[in-house]
Amino acid sequence: MTTVPNITEPSLYLDGIPHDRFAAMRCEPGVLWHPYGDDGFWAVTRHAEVREVSRNAEMFSSAIGHTNLWDLEADALEARRSLIDTDAPDHTRLRRLIATSFTPKNIKLWEDTVRRITRELLDDFVATGSGDWVELVAAPLPIRVILAMLGVPLEDADYLVELSNYLVEGTGDTQSIPPDAFGNTTELRLLPFNSPASHALFEYGEKLAELRRSDPQDDLVTHLVQAEAADGDRLTGSEYRNLFHLLVFAGNETTRTALSHGAIALADHPEQWQRVLDDEGLIESAAEEVLRWSTPVLHMRRTTSQATELAGTAIDAGQKVVVWYASANRDEAVFDDPFSFDVGRTDNQHFAFGGGGPHMCLGAFLARLEVVVLLEEMAARGIRLERRSEPVRTPSNFVHGVLSVDIGLAG
Amino acid sequence: MTGPDHDLVTVAINADTCISSGQCEMLEPDVFVVDDELVIGVVVGAGQLARSRAEEVVDRCPAAAISIVAATEE
């Protein structure tokens, strides 16, 4: 390939993932160097190598540098460091502090809550008949669930949804609020997504932690403040703040994306939804296909800890290696007919939750539950969706966001 | 059933590297569980699985913390 196509320009993603560019890159031997800013990165586009990089966390570090394409100054990296930007043993310690809340058997305990919230939202949607699916269903569902898990009082939910929306905006290239919004005095470069909403979210997390220290409840924040106090496993103030922030953001943005693209896919492929209506045994595979199809996070960046080789390409120490889940999830070598949406797809080894390494999405089983319950409740009501507008997408090469899409009930 | 794929093997979890992701619990809930107190995955009972299935679980552990420790004698 004489010229590597640009896959980082955010505005490209306004028209959807540039699949033709990724498909061309997957055909090339080795891994390709993609210019970026004054430097560049190794673009990993095939399923096999995305997996190899993801699973070799010692070589392909998350702690050196940043997990986004751009670099951060050392103080900003430290201030913003969360579970995502750590390697073992820090990563193992932090992850274990919250991991048990997200295991299959413990996530199952939240099924009734997820179902109640889903029913409320679907009943309202059916009563309204049509509207912006993101606003009516995809956004409120996951945020209400994660806030319930964290122990955020219901009356504060709207405020956290608002903050979270500003963070989503921060993944694009504009921020509609001034740097001093929410009383922020921190330099934006020290805040996740360079957003003053991060300051507000940190502050809210501190306030809730304070409340739970004196009045423990059966929720995640209580669990975290108790871990903070325990000997040995001490969670620092900065670690708590960033973890709270990560849970609110990740519990919101990514599942919202999956539920949005899921609705679009079901509306655009009515024959696939009919298969599910005819055979509810397909709900689980349909949910996995929604996850593959939506790929909520498009890529993650790693940095080599030593010189190495990937697919026969020599890579120096300290270079950026970027794994593109968006590409791996359409890899012809792994998925039969990867561009068809097939609710009966078997052995669907998609990378919607990462490439199978230690940074695998913490909320994977929760996200699955939310998708499954939504499909079950839609099927139970015999809901058929119809798309009434083009989706408005987030101009971001990092998240596959949908800002709005008009969906109605098919007649 | 016979053949090497169906031979029973014994699996174990490395307590130092396990990140409690729950993948093993999802794949084989009768053999693995993430222990809420220990905060790591543990093997339930004898920890025996058919070799092919054990290999799949080993392969799907994001922390590469599961290993086949022994072939089980019938």
Radius of gyration of chain A: 21 Å
Total helices of chain B: the number is 2
Largest sheet of chain A: 5 strands, mixed
Query: Would you list the SSEs of chain B in sequence order as H and E?
Result: EHEEEHE
**Total tally of structural domains of chain A:** 1
Oligomer: heterodimer
Assign the CATH superfamily of chain A.
Answer: Cytochrome P450
Number of strands of chain A: 12
- Please tell me the overall pLDDT of chain A: 93
Mean pLDDT of chain B: 90
Q: Overall 3D geometry of chain B?
A: globular
Care to describe what's here?
The complex is a heterodimer of chains A (411) and B (74). By secondary structure, chain A is α+β, with helices and mostly antiparallel strands. Chain A has helices spanning 19-26, 47-55, 74-80, 90-99, 104-107, 111-128, 133-138, 140-150, 157-170, 196-214, 220-229, 237-268, 270-278, 283-294, 325-328, 364-380; strands at 32-36, 39-44, 60-61, 130-132, 299-304, 308-310, 313-315, 320-324, 385-387, 392-393, 402-404, 406-409. In chain A, α12 packs across α13 and α12 packs across α14. The N and C termini of chain A lie far apart (48 Å). In chain A, 48% of the residues are buried. With 74 residues, chain B is an alpha+beta fold. Chain B contains two helices and five strands, in the order βαβββαβ. Chain B has helices at residues 23-27, 51-60, and strands spanning 8-13, 32-35, 40-43, 48-50, 66-71. Chain B is globular. Chain B starts with 7 loop residues before the first strand and ends with a strand. The A-B interface holds A 55, 88, 91-92, 95-96, 99-100, 102-106, 354, 356-360, 364-365 and B 16-17, 19-23, 25-26, 29, 33-34, 36, 39-40, 60, 62-64.
